User: What shape does this take?
Amino acid sequence: MSSPSFISYFGYGSLVNLATLRTKYLSAHPAVLQGWRRVWLARPAHAHSFGTDVDLAFLSVERMQTSKINGMVIVDHAANLDALDRREVLYERLEISTDEVTLEQPESSVFGDMHYLYIAQDDGEKSQHLHILRSYLDAVLQGFFDHWGEPGIADFKSTTRNCHFAILEDRDQPIYPRHVTLNAAARHAVEQHFPVKR
Assistant: This one.
């Protein structure tokens, strides 16, 4: 980083939605990560995390040289890193080169030579029986809609593996702790690509 007082990390799921962030971050920058794609994986049970149901899916990323994904570079105080690690307790924090990240506004590239990226490992278990929480999906896609509109949601789906997993419709009684309420336009866009089962 350009200063030990600051960190930056690339968010590709719920971290894209600035409304879900719980630290007083410094700035946020729409960006593209090259050589990775998103993937829905089995969410392991964890005593200090929400919902210990092993049949739930959560987002991660995996290497894919020909892929690129939209996301958000967040610049935060280094003192907030422990809080971020607790939020991302199911993930491993890696360092990636800023060469892998292209900012939509290159003049804001002032983050040194690396970003953090949180990834999870695919254990392969129950890969055909997982459910995506609607409340989690809403929180993720609200961020993509806010920054890129409906095309951002379409791009999310096309660059994310395992979007065929069933959706657990928990919007009325949300399980995801950082759940959001979509406005009419965002809800319509989300449901165009991830229809609600009636």
User: Anything to note?
Assistant: The chain has three helices and nine strands. The domain at 6-193 is CATH 3.10.490.10 (Hypothetical upf0131 protein ytfp).
